[in-house]
Amino acid sequence: LIAPWRKVTVLNVQTTRNDEPATVPTKGGLSVQVKAVLLYHLDPAAAPRVLRDVGDGYEHKLVDAYFRNAVRDAT
Known about the structure:
The chain is an alpha+beta fold. Helices cover 32% and strands 27% of the residues. The protein starts with 15 loop residues before the first strand and ends with a helix.
């Protein structure tokens, strides 16, 4: 039973796929298209802490930002 003044936030804990296309230069100066794929999921035990510390939309705030940065660093 949930009090009517309380808010319930639903978080997805299923495995999610994130694609990041990028155009990167080679040593020879040519530009090539690469596509990196990330599979991730939210640990159900950590969900309350993530919601409290990061808030709703953790995918855009954390996962997308770090994944794009990792793709740039790797290429």
